[in-house]
């Protein structure tokens, strides 16, 4: 057999073997989100999962499921560490009951003016490393934090007019576990911890009068505005972080190229999400102000400043609650000071 023919056969065999190995290493990941399956954010993320499959030539194939589909919303990181879920795409504040460091990192109420500042903290201010340190402690290093980012400056859902801090007194409202709930409590409201999937039914039944839920677009997509006719926009409170975590062993088994791929994929899709929501929110608000039965409320700067002062008191108390919370707060604080925001 001629050398060239033998080489051709060997190369063909090598290519076939590599292809078979690639197929063998294909990994289907179930990733639970905190959003209902029909929501704007869920649909956006679902539209991006095929891109990751393409980037990794089929080696990472994400199957998204809605909030609570496999485990309760406060238990996703445990399920990821145990490989019951292979990942979660959820709000970090849901784990604030374990350590207030999660609340500080997940939503330092009224700290940022826009999503790009908080996104910069995650990727340029040491935020991602701080997230990993907190998760390592509470998952025994079984969970990898792939990414952290806000998605929108939230709107506020309300069935009654709330035009000031004083109007919050006695209002029963949904707020995620952690700092947001504490700030609302200090402002005189009665926060109730509910998963996102129960917000609309709780508004319908009168269990709550208002909700710290999501962006204006997301509120509309799930039907909140059909019930709650007095949204506050821009929001007065929250710019929560959504995390993407995956099982550490699954992540470690990825090639170097696939690790880069999932990192870049996360950043690209979340930038796309932030841009889409920013455009969609402003367009929907303009449309609703011109022709709808909604009364869109915009707090004065003086009232916003009052709420931030209340929030700053809660920041300090949360920072003092544990060594990790203190370290997390100092990390964010240093970033804000460098930017002249404190």
Q: What's the order of the H and E elements? A: HEHEHEHHHEEEHEHEHEHHHH
CATH H-level superfamily title of the largest domain? Bacterial extracellular solute-binding protein, family 7
Radius of gyration: 22 Å
What's the main sheet like? 5 strands, mixed
Strand order of the largest sheet: 2-1-3-9-4
The gross shape turns out to be globular
Q: Assign the CATH architecture of the largest domain.
A: 3-Layer(aba) Sandwich
Low-confidence blocks of residues? 1-24
CATH topology of the largest domain, by name, is: D-Maltodextrin-Binding Protein, domain 2
Residues in helix, %: 40-55%
Total beta strands: 9
How many structural units, i.e. domains?
2
What topology does this entry show?
Layout: H1 3-24, E1 27-33, H2 40-55, E2 60-65, H3 76-81, E3 87-91, H4 100-106, H5 115-124, H6 127-139, E4 143-150, E5 157-158, E6 172-174, H7 179-186, E7 190-192, H8 199-205, E8 210-211, H9 216-222, E9 241-247, H10 248-252, H11 256-290, H12 301-319, H13 323-338
Parallel strand pairs: 1-2, 1-3, 6-7, 6-8
Antiparallel strand pairs: 3-9, 4-9, 5-8
Describe this structure in words.
The chain has 13 helices and nine strands. It is α/β, with parallel strands linked by helices and 342 residues long. It folds into two domains: 25-152 and 240-279, Bacterial extracellular solute-binding protein, family 7 (D-Maltodextrin-Binding Protein, domain 2, 3-Layer(aba) Sandwich); 157-238 and 289-338, 3-Layer(aba) Sandwich (D-Maltodextrin-Binding Protein, domain 2), CATH 3.40.190. The strands form two sheets. The protein has a five-stranded mixed β-sheet, sandwiched between helices. A four-stranded mixed β-sheet has the order 5-8-6-7, with helices on one face. Strand 6 (172-174), helix 7 (179-186) and strand 7 (190-192) form a beta-alpha-beta unit. The termini are far apart.
């Amino acid at each position: 057999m001629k050398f060239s023919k033998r080489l051709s056969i060997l190369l063909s065999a090598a290519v076939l073997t590599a292809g078979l190995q690639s197929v063998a290493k294909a990994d289907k990941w179930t990733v639970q989100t905190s959003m209902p399956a029909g929501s704007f954010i869920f649909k956006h993320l679902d539209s991006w999962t095929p891109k990751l499959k393409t980037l990794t030539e089929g080696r990472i194939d994400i199957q998204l499921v809605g909030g609570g589909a496999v485990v309760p919303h406060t238990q996703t990181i445990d399920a990821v560490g145990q490989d019951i879920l292979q990942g979660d795409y959820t709000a970090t504040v849901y784990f604030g009951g374990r350590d207030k460091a999660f609340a500080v990192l997940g939503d330092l109420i009224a700290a940022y003016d826009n999503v790009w500042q908080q996104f910069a903290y995650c990727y340029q201010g040491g935020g991602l490393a701080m997230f990993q340190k907190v998760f390592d402690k509470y998952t025994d290093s079984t969970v990898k934090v792939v990414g952290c980012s806000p998605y929108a400056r939230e709107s506020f859902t309300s069935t009654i007019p709330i035009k000031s801090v004083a109007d919050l007194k006695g209002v029963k409202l949904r707020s995620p576990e952690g700092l947001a709930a504490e700030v609302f409590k200090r402002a005189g409201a009665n926060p109730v911890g509910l998963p996102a999937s129960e917000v609309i039914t709780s508004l319908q039944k009168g269990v709550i009068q208002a909700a710290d839920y999501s962006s204006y677009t997301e509120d509309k997509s799930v039907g909140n505005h059909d019930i709650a006719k007095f949204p506050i926009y821009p929001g007065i409170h929250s710019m929560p972080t959504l995390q993407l975590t995956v099982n550490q062993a699954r992540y470690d088994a990825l090639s170097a190229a696939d690790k880069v791929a999932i990192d870049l994929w996360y950043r690209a899709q979340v930038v796309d999400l932030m841009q889409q929501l920013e455009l969609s929110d402003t367009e929907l608000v303009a449309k609703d102000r011109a022709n709808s039965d909604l009364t869109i409320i915009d707090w004065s700067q003086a009232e916003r400043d009052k709420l931030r002062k209340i929030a700053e008191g809660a920041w300090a108390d949360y920072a003092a609650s544990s060594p990790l919370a203190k370290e997390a707060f100092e990390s964010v604080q240093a970033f804000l000071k460098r930017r002249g925001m404190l």
